[in-house]
Amino acid sequence: MKVLIINGSPRIGGNTTVAVNELVKTLKGEGVESEVVQIGKKAIRGCIGCYSCAENKKCVFDDEVNQLAPRFEEADGLVVATPVYYASPNGTVLSFLDRLFMSCKFDKTMKVGAGIAVARRGGCSATFDALNKYFTICGMPVVSSQYWNSVHGAGKGEAEQDGEGLQTMRTLGKNMAFLMKSIALGKEKFGLPEQEAWQPTNFIR
């Protein structure tokens, strides 16, 4: 089993990395491989709604989104960790996720997802909520923990002092490993849930 972890922080070795490292260590102990990619300093532009990806099966802007799309497809789970900017994921993370989820046309049903928010003080809940919307729109079960997935720290490395936050990361790792293994067994025995044909309904006609 493998998890792709997106670290959205522009700060190398910062508090988002502290949270991610705790998760990676736990997943490894559960026999799950992790790949961490840090995108925080990358020049990733936002989606322009051109819908070229519907025909080309990839984004028209050839950057980290297209590079990571195949690894997303191969992975059993996706984790997105981000610092909190104005009670939201930072702009790079939002641009990356908008384009990744729009351009990746493969079936994501039962590929598990988890968001992690890291902040000095506030805004973690709103950020966590924004990340979860990407997973739930495409049939990806969201992994729970013992609390909302957040870790706190201001200065570099301060998150190492957040005992409850790091415990939340360890619980998240254990639950994620269990859920992925359980889904793999369920798919083997029962297959994926049958899907109805999409019925797009606009509110304005």
Automatic annotation (TrEMBL):
Keywords: Flavoprotein, FMN. The keyword Cell membrane does not apply. InterPro entries: Flavoprotein-like_sf, FMN_Rdtase-like_dom, ISF_SsuE-like. One of its GO terms (molecular function) is oxidoreductase activity. Residues 1-152 form the NADPH-dependent FMN reductase-like domain. PANTHER family: NAD(P)H-DEPENDENT FMN-CONTAINING OXIDOREDUCTASE YWQN-RELATED. It comes from Anaerovibrio lipolyticus. Pfam families: FMN_red. Transmembrane segments: none annotated. SUPFAM superfamilies: Flavoproteins. This is NADPH-dependent FMN reductase. It comes from the Bacteria.
